[in-house]
Amino acid sequence: MATLHQRRHYREAIMKSLYEAMEGNRLLGLTGAQLREDVAMPEEDLAAACTYLAAEGLIQVDWARGNTPSMVTLTHKGIQLMESEEKGGD
Predict the structure, then answer these.
(1) What gap in Å lies between CA 90 and CA 86, rounded to an integer?
(2) Which of 21-57 are b and which e, b meaning 16 or more Cβ less than 10 Å from the residue's Cβ?
């Protein structure tokens, strides 16, 4: 089981990876396999992080068998959060 620090890092990495992948097109997302590869995390931690972010309304997840994300996309709320963080970093 991941530590609190790891879980936060995983969630931030997922959001950043999705935001970079979509490049302004909300319809683009990542497969669960690609996302797991991008953020280099165990499958169970990916599922837990995606469940958390989906519950917060930041991402939308299409689930495959075995509680595995098959496709993950940012929601409007997720895009707004990432844009506000990007703007704050300028």
Answers:
(1) 7
(2) bbeeeeeebbebeebbebbebeeebbbbbbebbbeee
CA distance 10 to 47: 11
Q: Enumerate the H helices of 1-90 as residue ranges.
A: 4-22, 32-39, 43-55, 76-89
- Check residue 88 and give its pLDDT: 75
For residue 87, what pLDDT is reported?
Answer: 83
Dihedral sign for Cα 44, 45, 49, 55, please. Answer: positive
Mean pLDDT score of the chain, rounded to an integer?
A: 89
On whether the CB atoms of residues 18 and 25 are closer than 8 A, the answer is: no
Sign (positive/negative) of CA torsion 77, 2, 41, 85? positive
3-class secondary-structure state, position 79: helix
pLDDT on residue 81: 94
Would you say 32 and 41 are in contact if contact means Cβ atoms under 8 Å apart? no
